[in-house]
Specification:
Layout (H helix, E strand, L loop, with lengths): L2 H21 L1 H35 L8 H49 L2 H4 L2 H43 L3 H47 L1 H10 L2 H29 L1 H23 L5 H42 L34
Helix pairs in contact: 1-2, 1-10, 2-3, 2-5, 2-10, 3-5, 5-10, 6-8, 6-9, 6-10, 9-10
Length: 364
């Protein structure tokens, strides 16, 4: 993703979230809280497991009973899990209500813009194209873009938290891990971008495929095709289009699968190496067993967070194309300037109609 595309995506994230902020600040705050809890509380659970393992390792075989420290660890461990589970249930409600709110705002603003457009703008093909795009795709993709934005923010929070946790075991291992993750991160973004570009290229062929399918399977059309003996030609054209679209998808999938070999091997080798050194330090008594478990789980958390961040960022790039269309329509200036505040008529009387000397009778 180039820098300009990244800047556009960030700008659209801010603009769409600001719409929800103006519409309902409490719901906006609820979405942020849910995102924050879902990003951080799994890390708290992992750290509580580390404390529990260390406590049991140190006190194994000792008759010390249940201490306040052990009770506190269990409270942190299962209290965090309970809060995370409640947040997951609450997030369904928050996401659903915020989506309704956002859809209502988008629909109302779209109607307001259509109402204020001048007649000349309706005759403009570019403006008409914007209207059609928003009517067909934009009004449901805009709320989806907000959810994607929150997913990206959540993945970024998880990624930063994982980096902070891993940095406590040394800066150099973290830097090595970051460098090893860069090729896979770039490849994820590039693949999603290529897939979207391929989808855009295939759109005319896909439309033609749907049209030919309707023509060939409709009962009335089938009769005319039979009479004109056009079925072989149309079927051949239909099959050629299928093969063209399929071959493009196949080529993209094959190139992506081959390109993924090196990043996966590199990431796996680095993770195995870091895990090996952590086990060695544990056997030498440099770190505890709980710290080893915590370190390994944070490596998995790091890999999951950066993978999700890359995939969702590329998805946002796709969504930002529709968001650009929406704001382009919203910012259209009026062709004919209107006077402000305008002239207010005191009384407007509708014209009357009066019939004089008119008669009617049914014929005999």
């Amino acid at each position: 993703m180039r820098m300009k595309a990244f800047q556009r995506t960030v700008r659209n994230i801010v603009r769409t979230l600001s719409i929800l902020w103006r519409a309902d600040r409490w719901m906006f705050a609820g979405l942020l809280v849910v995102t924050l809890v879902e990003s951080l509380f799994p890390l708290i659970v992992i750290y509580a497991n580390k404390l529990l393992i260390d406590y049991l390792t140190v006190h194994q075989g000792l008759s010390i009973g249940i201490s306040v420290g052990l009770i506190s660890i269990f409270i942190i461990r299962y209290g965090s899990s309970s809060i995370d589970e409640l947040t997951s249930v609450y997030s369904v409600y928050v996401n659903r209500i915020s989506r309704y709110i956002f859809e209502n705002v988008i629909a109302l603003e779209f109607a307001r813009v259509i109402a204020r457009l001048d007649i000349a703008q309706f005759e403009d093909s570019a403006v008409q194209d914007l209207i059609n795009k928003i009517s067909r795709e934009g009004q449901w993709r805009m709320p989806q873009f907000v959810l994607w934005s929150l997913y990206v923010i959540g993945s970024l929070i998880s990624f930063v938290a994982a980096c902070i946790a891993l940095s406590s075991f040394g800066v150099w291992p973290l830097l090595i891990l970051l460098v090893a993750a860069i090729p896979g991160f770039i490849l994820r973004i590039q693949h999603n971008k290529d897939a979207w570009s391929l989808y855009s290229i295939n759109t005319p062929q896909a439309k033609e495929l749907r049209y030919l399918n309707d023509v060939l399977t409709d009962r009335d059309n089938a009769k005319e095709i039979r009479i004109a003996q056009a079925a072989p030609k149309l079927l051949n054209r239909f099959q050629n289009l299928q093969n063209t679209v399929f071959q493009r998808q196949k080529d993209l999938s094959r190139s992506h699968a081959m390109a993924w070999l090196l990043p996966v091997v590199l990431e796996s080798a680095v993770l195995i190496g870091l895990g090996f050194f952590a086990v060695r330090d544990t056997l030498h008594g440099l770190i505890t067993v709980g710290s080893l478990v915590f370190y390994v789980q944070m490596l998995d958390q790091f890999r999951h967070a950066i993978g999700g961040f890359g995939n969702q960022l590329a998805t946002l790039y796709e969504g930002t194309l529709y968001v650009d269309d929406y704001f382009a329509l919203m910012n259209l200036p009026n062709v004919i300037p209107e006077a402000s505040p305008g002239h207010v008529f005191e009384h407007i009387k509708p014209p009357g109609v009066e019939f004089l000397g008119v008669s009617f009778a049914y014929p005999d």
